[in-house]
Amino acid sequence: MRNLLAIPVMVLAFGQAMAADECGKVTIADMNWSSATLIANVDKFILEHGYGCDAELVPGDTMPTGTSMIEKGEPDIAPEMWSNSMRDALDKGVAEKRLRYAGNSLSDGGEEGFWVPEYMVKKYPELATIEGVKKHAKLFTHPEDDSKSAFYGCPAGWNCQISASNLFRALKLADSGFDLIDPGSGAGLAGSIAKAFTREEPWFGYYWAPTAVLGKYKMVKVDFGSGIDKQHYIDCISANECVDPHPTMYPPSLVQTVTTESFAETSPAAYSYVSHRSLTNNQLNGLLAWMEENQADGEVAAEYFLTEHEDLWTPWVSAEVADKVKHALQ
């Protein structure tokens, strides 16, 4: 009789263990830029087909998504959160056990810098340094004034306009004849690079990664010879009123996967996947270039990635999950 009574208890315990790792419904923030929508769609496919989740994409953006996760507990996953932009609020959410930092979406962080085309550095290797750029300033012809050299800054109204302008002053580029050009828009800035590459002309200016532009056009980040002074970057370079800017390379931006605590607790296997899912800037730049060239949306790009780059994503999951995802792709 004792053995017979033990059977329902064992079944109940087993059922509870299964329920504790049952994925269920999962909402994923689909941010409004290409790298984020690619990762969100990869997550949706893997969570649906590999872990049996009922995964749904919901519109998102950094601030509103972070705030909603803290206050309302949804969405469950923010796949690409540029967390420095709301660090205090996210840290508080983690401390209060509302959120978890699952891992780094970008293993090497978001990247910013001043860049020159690779073909220019092959011709003049010293252009890989800021002193070399100053020495060859005359190469970078201004589009409207032959007496000046052109430095393409960040568009007006963008946060990066502040840092790029302050570093332009810190590096004393005006003393070498450079003029800080406002490209007017992100498209204008990208267009100036495309035009230069089409003609193999000199170009010097600000850009960031991950982006399709740096995936498509091979650029070299100029070394300021300063190293990274993160505190000075925070206190002055990124501040509107920076009286005495000093040269510093841009510190990498922390780009993380953030989840709700409830998702992490109730779906540990799925949480383990998002905590291991990470790409480098170079990998993501190449994928974004493919998206742009093929005019692919996030869903199409995710299937391309999962089909063509098994070497990148299969280490994130178990062999059993990988087989399920591959079967679904077929």
From TrEMBL:
Residues 1-19 form the signal peptide. Residues 25-308 form the ABC-type glycine betaine transport system substrate-binding domain. InterPro entries: ABC_Gly_betaine_transp_sub-bd (IPR007210). The keyword Coiled coil does not apply. GO terms for molecular function: transmembrane transporter activity. Keywords: Signal. GO terms for cellular component: ATP-binding cassette (ABC) transporter complex. Pfam families: OpuAC (PF04069). This is Glycine betaine/proline transport system substrate-binding protein.
